[in-house]
Amino acid sequence: MDSTQILEEVDEIFKDELDNDDIVIQRDTTAGDIAEWDSLTHITLVVAIEKHFKVKFTAAEIQGFKNVGEMCDAIHAKVS
Amino acid sequence: MFTVGDTYQETFITDALTYEGFIDLFKDKNPLHTDAQFARSKSFKDRVMHGNILNGYISYFIGECLPSKDVVIHSQEIKYHAPVYLNDELSLHATVSEIYDSVNAVVFKYRFLDVEKKVIAKGTFQIGLI
């Protein structure tokens, strides 16, 4: 699974969890870009992503991601 | 604090105070809940207690019965398998099924059992440790 495929699947998770098919997730997307991405949906998204990719993040990893792309890179590293 | 497999339980009785209080608060006076004759005509043995009383028990359980008070409910899901009647005794058994350390979230699977160990309702809830 390459980073592009991971990003596409993350995009689908965001659409599903945030119940908004108009969302388009890109590597440089941050919480500030998406109105629905608040503190509680952040938890929902992380849980859904961990479940989907069968990976576990630490709190430090989650807090360290500057954007979706960095999270996708971390997923790629864990599943490779 | 939590480990996958940890199980907690609590017993509840759907007494008149709970039943009447629920009606007073939420105004659901559907005859299935308030008219024994109507309920029997629908093949129930008596008035059926409101299913969402069980969600109230879950709220109490999360807020008061777990090892930490530093909790918040993220989500609850429930499936009803059998009716509950006035003064039924139910035991809630909740087991830690998933832990997400990254966001301090814990998922439980739970079951409500009657005194004969029959499943009355089951589902999941997710809490956050705050």
Overall description:
- The complex is a heterodimer of chains A (about 80) and B (about 130).
- Chain A is mainly alpha-helical and about 80 residues long.
- Helix content of chain A is about 60%, strand content about 0%.
- In chain A, α1 packs across α2 and α1 crosses α4.
- The model of chain A has no long low-confidence stretch (mean pLDDT about 95).
- Chain B has about 130 residues and is α+β, with helices and mostly antiparallel strands.
- Helix content of chain B is about 25%, strand content about 40%.
- Chain B contains 4 helices and 5 strands, in the order βααααββββ.
- A 5-stranded antiparallel beta sheet of chain B has the order 1-3-4-5-2, covered by helices on one side.
- In chain B, a hairpin with a 4-residue loop joins β3 and β4.
- Chain B starts with 6 loop residues before the first strand and ends with a strand.
- Chains A and B meet through α2 and α3 of A and loops of B.
Alpha carbon gyration radius of chain B: 16 Å
Strand-residue fraction of chain B?
35-45%
Largest interface: A-B, 14 and 12 residues
Straight-line N-to-C gap of chain B: 13 Å
Instruction: Give the overall average pLDDT of chain B.
Output: 98
Estimated helix fraction of chain A: 55-70%
Tags for this entry?
heterodimer, A: 80 residues, mainly alpha, B: 130 residues, alpha+beta
Could you provide a short overview of the structure?
The complex is a heterodimer of chains A (80) and B (130). Chain A is mainly α and 80 residues long.
Strand and helix layout:
The complex is a heterodimer of chains A (80) and B (130).
Chain A (H helix, E strand, L loop, with lengths): L2 H15 L21 H15 L5 H6 L3 H12 L1
Chain B lengths: L6 E7 L2 H11 L4 H4 L1 H6 L10 H14 L5 E10 L8 E12 L4 E9 L5 E11 L1
